[in-house]
Amino acid sequence: MIRLWIHECFRVFADRLNDDKDREQFGSILSEKLGTHLDVTFHSICQNRIPPTFGDFMNQDGIYEDLLDFDKLKIHMEKVLKDYNETPGTVPMDLVLFRDAILHATRIIRVIRQPRGNMLLIGIGGSGRQSLAKLSSFICDYSVFKIEIAKNYRRNEFREDLKRLYKQAGVSNRETTFIFVDTQAIEETFFEDINNILSSGEVPNLFKAEELEEIKTSMAAELKREGINEENNQEVYAFLLDRVKANLHMVVCMSPVGEVFRYAKTYCR
What we know:
Layout lengths: L1 H11 L7 H19 L3 H4 L8 E2 L9 E2 L3 H16 L13 H14 L6 E4 L6 H11 L3 E3 L9 H17 L4 E6 L7 H11 L9 H10 L1 H6 L7 H15 E7 L4 H9 L2
Parallel strand pairs: 3-6, 4-5, 5-6
Antiparallel strand pairs: 1-2
Protein name: Dynein heavy chain AAA module D4 domain-containing protein
Subcellular location: Cytoplasm, Cytoskeleton, Cilium axoneme
Family: Belongs to the dynein heavy chain family.
């Protein structure tokens, strides 16, 4: 139980820190709390001062367990990557699963497994952020949604893609990971919509009246089963949004330098 508590402290607090001094202070606070309240030391619980790793994907029952055997974890992840690469319709990934990559994947899985679990992955391009997000989504049995940038891609086109995303997560009721990369932010306003998705789940004025009618037709059986009045657009839209919020997980991949990161911090708080 103590190892689980340590793991969750690292995931909830340490993973959000990007400064060495802050991480050192976190380690000091954690050690102090372990000594004061549990009468143990970090070293006595975690050999070689390696933080524990927990996950629910190594057993068929979905039990959240202490992944003590890293070699076993590595073999499992390599098998999953092989399965992913052999799945029809996917583009094979030439991904090297070194220790840090595997541990990052376990963290992504932990977050997107949670209701409304979203992540911000910061790193330079080519560091494997998208690949690990795809692999983690595959482990969770989620669909991956990405936008494709074309020459004249602007906010109207982005909104059309968001409609497809909402239909996939809401109408089709599919667990979905939306992977968005900072290089796809052609306009600053993209982050307004992303902020709305993250904060409330609703992108204002996304669907026109006739589009909502099409959605009602597609969901007629489910609306009836849930006792929702099809004539009440507010109830129908609320049902759609509830499904989207339950099924959608955002993974935003950003570089720590550049203008995009600056204005992303302005819009997404």
